[in-house]
Amino acid sequence: xxxxxxxxxxxxxxxxxxxxxxxxxxxxxxxxxxxxxxxxxxxxxxxxxxxxxxxxxxxxxxxxxxxxxxxxxxxxxxxxxxxxxxxxxxxxxxxxxxxxxxx
Length: 103
Fold this sequence. Notes:
Helix content is 65%, strand content 0%. It contains three helices and no strands. This is Conjugal transfer protein TraG.
Protein backbone atom coordinates (compact mmCIF):
# COMPACT_ATOMS: atom_id res chain seq x y z
CA UNK A 1 0.00 0.00 0.00
CA UNK A 2 1.14 3.49 -0.79
CA UNK A 3 1.28 5.95 2.09
CA UNK A 4 -0.45 9.26 1.54
CA UNK A 5 1.49 12.39 2.36
CA UNK A 6 -0.20 14.24 5.21
CA UNK A 7 0.65 17.90 4.62
CA UNK A 8 -0.85 19.13 7.90
CA UNK A 9 1.22 16.69 9.97
CA UNK A 10 4.37 17.54 8.01
CA UNK A 11 3.90 21.27 8.55
CA UNK A 12 3.11 20.89 12.26
CA UNK A 13 6.16 18.72 12.90
CA UNK A 14 8.46 21.19 11.14
CA UNK A 15 6.85 24.36 12.51
CA UNK A 16 9.46 24.93 15.29
CA UNK A 17 12.30 24.75 12.77
CA UNK A 18 10.50 27.13 10.40
CA UNK A 19 9.84 29.64 13.20
CA UNK A 20 13.42 29.45 14.43
CA UNK A 21 14.65 29.98 10.89
CA UNK A 22 12.46 33.06 10.49
CA UNK A 23 13.68 34.44 13.80
CA UNK A 24 17.31 33.74 12.83
CA UNK A 25 16.94 36.04 9.84
CA UNK A 26 17.32 38.87 12.37
CA UNK A 27 20.86 37.64 13.09
CA UNK A 28 21.63 37.86 9.39
CA UNK A 29 20.26 41.39 9.38
CA UNK A 30 22.46 42.29 12.34
CA UNK A 31 25.50 40.91 10.51
CA UNK A 32 24.68 43.04 7.47
CA UNK A 33 24.20 46.17 9.60
CA UNK A 34 27.48 45.68 11.51
CA UNK A 35 30.29 48.02 10.52
CA UNK A 36 33.66 46.63 9.54
CA UNK A 37 35.77 45.51 6.62
CA UNK A 38 36.60 42.02 7.84
CA UNK A 39 35.03 39.42 10.13
CA UNK A 40 36.85 40.47 13.30
CA UNK A 41 35.68 44.08 13.01
CA UNK A 42 32.14 42.93 12.25
CA UNK A 43 32.10 40.69 15.34
CA UNK A 44 33.14 43.63 17.52
CA UNK A 45 30.41 45.91 16.18
CA UNK A 46 27.82 43.10 16.11
CA UNK A 47 27.26 43.47 19.85
CA UNK A 48 26.16 47.07 19.38
CA UNK A 49 23.89 46.32 16.40
CA UNK A 50 22.25 43.12 17.68
CA UNK A 51 19.65 44.75 20.00
CA UNK A 52 18.42 46.92 17.15
CA UNK A 53 18.06 43.96 14.82
CA UNK A 54 16.26 41.84 17.45
CA UNK A 55 13.90 44.66 18.35
CA UNK A 56 11.34 43.43 15.83
CA UNK A 57 10.12 39.83 15.63
CA UNK A 58 9.33 40.20 11.94
CA UNK A 59 11.79 38.37 9.70
CA UNK A 60 14.04 40.12 7.27
CA UNK A 61 13.42 39.20 3.63
CA UNK A 62 16.90 40.00 2.33
CA UNK A 63 18.35 36.93 0.50
CA UNK A 64 21.43 36.75 2.77
CA UNK A 65 19.23 36.91 5.87
CA UNK A 66 16.97 34.19 4.53
CA UNK A 67 20.04 32.03 3.90
CA UNK A 68 21.18 32.51 7.51
CA UNK A 69 17.69 31.56 8.73
CA UNK A 70 17.61 28.50 6.49
CA UNK A 71 20.99 27.37 7.78
CA UNK A 72 19.98 27.83 11.44
CA UNK A 73 16.64 26.03 11.06
CA UNK A 74 18.22 23.26 8.98
CA UNK A 75 21.06 22.73 11.43
CA UNK A 76 18.63 22.43 14.35
CA UNK A 77 16.56 19.91 12.37
CA UNK A 78 19.71 17.95 11.54
CA UNK A 79 20.79 17.92 15.20
CA UNK A 80 17.39 16.61 16.32
CA UNK A 81 17.40 13.97 13.56
CA UNK A 82 20.88 12.74 14.44
CA UNK A 83 20.03 12.65 18.15
CA UNK A 84 16.93 10.54 17.47
CA UNK A 85 18.88 8.14 15.24
CA UNK A 86 21.60 7.77 17.87
CA UNK A 87 19.06 7.04 20.62
CA UNK A 88 17.76 4.00 18.77
CA UNK A 89 21.15 2.28 18.87
CA UNK A 90 21.19 1.84 22.63
CA UNK A 91 19.55 -1.02 24.47
CA UNK A 92 17.41 0.72 27.04
CA UNK A 93 17.30 -1.02 30.42
CA UNK A 94 19.99 -3.55 29.53
CA UNK A 95 23.57 -3.67 30.69
CA UNK A 96 26.42 -2.89 28.30
CA UNK A 97 29.68 -4.77 27.95
CA UNK A 98 30.82 -7.97 29.56
CA UNK A 99 30.24 -6.97 33.18
CA UNK A 100 27.39 -8.78 34.89
CA UNK A 101 25.79 -7.84 38.16
CA UNK A 102 25.34 -10.68 40.66
CA UNK A 103 25.65 -14.07 39.07
